[in-house]
Structure formats: structure tokens, C-alpha cells
Amino acid sequence: MPSPTIKTIQKIAKKKNGKELTPKQAKAVKVYIETGSQAEAGRQAYPTQTLESARVTGHETLTKPYVKNVLAELMDNIGLTDEYLMEKVKEGIERLTSKESKSTLSNWR
User: Fold this and answer.
1) 3-state secondary structure (DSSP) of residue 8
2) Radius of gyration of the chain (CA)
3) Which residues contact 51 (CB under 8 A, 6 or more apart)?
4) Do 21 and 66 form a contact (C-beta atoms < 8 A)?
5) pLDDT by residue (tens digit) across 19-65?
6) How confident is the model at residue 106 (pLDDT cuts 50, 70, 90)?
7) Does the N terminus or the C terminus of the chain have fewer Cβ atoms within 10 A?
8) How far is Cα 11 from Cα 15, in angstroms, rounded to an integer?
9) pLDDT tops 80 at residue 82
10) What's the rounded Cα separation, in Å, for the pair 39 and 36?
């Protein structure tokens, strides 16, 4: 499934909320659409020191009402289903539990 561009995300934000998202919020939305992971969205949009702070930041960003408006519109526009998102979450869990990811996460902390 194609990922929306930052430009598309900002157009939708302007239409839905009357203003664009911050660049980091738009990046978090893009990564969340691509991965289905709030933690990964937080990690990529807001470089942090720990996985826990990335998870918290991702959740805080993606649950803001004006960001949720953008996410809902994007999901409708590109046909994201619950099944597709669950598959992405499953892939993320598998990546996080693989040996390679465990060593990467250990170095990240």
C-alpha cells in the first residue's frame, strides 16, 4: 500500500483542521501509516533515547484530536482496513522479537 507524502498529509491537515501539522507531527503520521506502530512513529519523528519515551511520544502525538482527524481521512483515502493495520502490527512485533532487532534495541537504549 503506497504511503502518503508529507505534502498530502499537510493538505489534509489544512482541509480538516484549518492549519498544517508541525513537520514532526506530519512525519509521525507518515511513519504510523507505514508501520502501524506508535512507538516507531515517535522514534522516527522525535529522536529519543529510549524505546519507552518513543512509545509515549508517539502515542501523545497520534492521539491529539487534530492529528487523529488527519489519520482518519488518510485511512479512508487509501483504504486502510483494520486487517491491514493488524498485519503491520504483527510484522512490527516480529521485527522487534527477532534476534537482530534485540541487539539493535540494546544498542539504542
Assistant:
1) helix
2) 14
3) 39, 43, 105, 108, 109
4) yes
5) 999 999 999 999 998 888 999 999 999 987 788 899 999 999 999 99
6) low
7) C
8) 6
9) no
10) 9
